[in-house]
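Today's session is about reading a structure prediction critically. Students often jump straight to the picture, but the first step is always the sequence itself: look for stretches that repeat, for charged clusters, for runs of hydrophobic residues. Only then move on to the predicted structure, which in these notes is written as discrete structure tokens rather than atom positions. Here is the chain we will use throughout the hour.
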Amino acid sequence: MNKSVFAGLIGLMFSVPVFANDSTKIVLKTLASESQHPVLYQLVGQILNSYHYKKIKIDDKLSSDLLDNYIENLDPGKVYFLKEDIDKFEKYRNQLDDDILKGDVQKAFEIYNIYQAHLEDRIYYTLDLLKQDFDFTQNDSFEARREKTEWVKNYREYDQLWYKKTKSEVLQLKADGKDKKTYTDIITKRYRNLLKQLSKTKNEDVFSYFANSLTEIADPHSNYLSPRAAEDFNQSMSLSLEGIGATLQTDNEFTKIRETIKGGPAEKSKQLFANDKIIAVGQGKEGEMVNILDWRIDDVVALIRGKKGTLVRLEVISHDAINKKSKIVEIIRDKIVLEDQSAKSNIKSIERNGKKEKIGTIMLPSFYLDVAALQRGDANYKSTTRDVKKLILQLKDSNITSLIIDLRNNGGGSLPEAVELTGLFIKKGPVVQVRDAFGITKGEEDDNESVTWEGPLAVLVNRFSASASEIFAAAIQDYNRGVIVGERTYGKGTVQNLFDLNQFVMVDGKKLGQIKITIAKFYRISGGSTQFKGVVPDIEFPGIYDDKEYGEAASKFALPYDEIKQMTYNEQGHTKSALPGLKKKHEQRMKNSLEYSFLLEDIDAMKKAKAKNFYTLNEEKYKTEVAMADQQKKLREAAKAKLKEGKTGEPNLILDETYQILMDLEGK
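Below is the predicted structure for this chain, in token form.
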């Protein structure tokens, strides 16, 4: 996690807020540090210095990097701060390291409040601009990405920048057929919503922004987690939480149910449904009903969540209510299992050369482990390996001949689960090496001789397969146990540890949250790190995402790739000897694949789109460009539609090709 911390660290069960078009002027309060923040800031610095893999030095270089990173995180597009602000902040360049030692966070709040004031000013400036008419016959243009552009020097440039920005937003809607009233209403609501969201920013949010700007300098996976963010993180790792089992989102001033989770209390009650609006929450039979209109979504979630077996009362306006009449719904909270992140399987019947084969696929979105349930001795604790083993046994009962483990978009999770999962496919042996900050290397081993699946195996990966996914894929590759197919992986080869900050210090009895810091690096049993470089597939597909923009290589603070001594291990498969033949057949199929040609065209189109940074504000030219793009899109959709003729389901190039690769591997 890097820039994503500035999404608010709200966590697992929330949706993007949408706020009312309120004509009332919204007053933004000046934000300031709270009693725990100086101690926390000092503590975060000490932990990075003492426990981080790099043993971060608190010096002027760190101070300089912190200032730049904080400003970049607040205003990555250089549209809010002026050059005079940046010049003013320059005096702090070599002072922030001293502030860490003193526990002084005043400069962080000063910079944020200036940012907030500019954002408020630009919102009202935009709303004023919408009252006038724009001339779309001029041949001017708008610079969309300003990361490498200089800061605006004065208010004349500032106003010109925002004039073009607003004009661009209007042009997009106008060219889409919206009349002036409609596009004005849409953009007005958009900016008033932004202002309303800004008004709900808390002191803790600002501290989190700044603390994470500090931890990111150590590496992109070290983060400060506020008390609420820490709770969400821990629940996401266990794939469970305790509550009513509903996904919530903000809809104007209301909190609306987006969906109920299958098998959860909300669904079982048969009284709560999607689009129902919750307007008040009460605890137990007699607790006061608290009005939650206009609340932040994370505050609402915190109020509704609670321990298993406790009662919560919700005042609800049903989605089909007549005259908006509300009702009270009583729900007994329970443990909710987040099945969307659990392992799932399916079987594909493939016919080739007159022979039919069944290939099983296990989709694994994350490496999960319910640590709390395990520690309390719950025999039914949830884990990746337990779930996958059950699925493999079920697939074997269905007589599959080959197996695919699909790790695409799997961002990782539990290291022990990655090791244990590897053990389902190999006999006893090392899986990964871990080197700590002191240079001590330890091997993590599978000590179970039994193998759950001995047949042909493929592992699917893409650019967003990271961490534990890379450990598993690398081990399968090093053991020569299966073929790795897809895109080069993310390149996250580091180990993080969570520290409960209340274990170090107490401040007024408050929860202080946690800090997640990098304490070690992963290395393959063959010696190379998965860090930065990732895992290169045996049969590689071109990636649609630029390595420099997505993945570990995108972070300027990422730890580098390096190598250590390889471990002693014995290969347990024959994939490598088959690879030349597999690649040759794969390349031949791709030459004749219309889907593959579409992929290459999509990659080329995306590169061209990213290279374009200036967009016309001339209506006639804009409409011509849009018409051409629409025509190309229609031609592409028509061509893709032909691919579906006589087939069921959506085409999936990489998965479908993996079926063929496994058939080649089987010699069928």
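Discussion point for the tutorial: The first strand starts at residue 141 and ends at 143.
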